[in-house]
Amino acid sequence: MAKFELPRKDFALGFVALRSFMHLLTPEDQLACLQAVYEHLQPGGTFVLNIIAPNLDRLAQKPDDAYVVRQEFDLPNGHHVLRKERLVRHDVVQQVRQFEFKFEEFDTAGALARERVVPLYTRYTFRHELQLLFERAGLKMVEVYRDYSKNPYDGTGELIAVARRPHHGDMNRKHKIDRSAQ
Fold first, then answer.
1. Beta carbons within 10 angstroms of residue 16's beta carbon
2. Does 160 reside within a domain?
3. 124: pLDDT confidence band, cut at 50, 70 and 90?
4. Which residues contact 28 (CB under 8 A, 6 or more apart)?
5. How far from the centroid of its chain's Cα atoms is residue 1's Cα?
């Protein structure tokens, strides 16, 4: 995702959905992804990116040994599943959080049938940081929303950013110099 090369370089629309961008754990990988997007969009092409808006209360959360139930659901075979999560580590300098998801599957008698622990690493990115990454890649952020209903971004919920690859005549001199220096 940070470095891709497709045969076509004229896409009118590109997107990174389902918070996938948060799995790029360094600003360098995030920038590489956005530069690859830029190279694959046609001039005037649109790019949409979805991440979780950094929540200061959640960012203040300390790592914990205890799991919290986040979701419960039933399987077609009648088994019941609990999806639990816990924060393992939070690197405030790198903006990376490590979680563990624990899936517990209980049979119809209520006995634990299966358990699986899955690690998850994500990097949170603030709105203006994202805008600067877009600009460094040559993209222009044109809209930001807090949800898919296009409600204005208020620092909560999702962060859905819409950017465009400028037409050649729209690029200012600074972006031309920055891109040639890379």
1. 20
2. yes
3. very high
4. none
5. 12
Output the average pLDDT for the chain.
Answer: 93
Q: Which residue has the tokens 């994500």?
A: 122
Cβ pair 103, 83 in contact under 8 A: yes
**For the chain, percent of residues with pLDDT exceeding 70:** 92
Nearest to 144 by CA among 136, 133, 135, 155: 155
68 within some domain = yes
Q: Are residues 99 and 129 in the same domain?
A: no
Pairing of strands 11-16, 41-52: parallel
State the Cα–Cα distance between residues 54 and 168, nearest whole angstrom.
34
CA–CA separation, 31 vs 39, rounded Å?
12
Q: What whole-number distance in Å separates Cα of residue 163 and Cα of residue 135?
A: 10
Cα separation, 17 vs 36, whole angstroms:
16
Percent of the residues in the chain that have a pLDDT greater than 90, as a whole number: 91
Q: What pTM was computed for the model?
A: 0.86
> In this model, does residue 50 exceed pLDDT 90?
yes
Query: 93: closest CA among 127, 65, 59?
Result: 59
Q: What is the pLDDT of residues 77-123, one digit of tens each?
A: 999 999 999 999 999 999 999 999 999 999 999 999 999 999 999 99
Position 182 in a domain = no
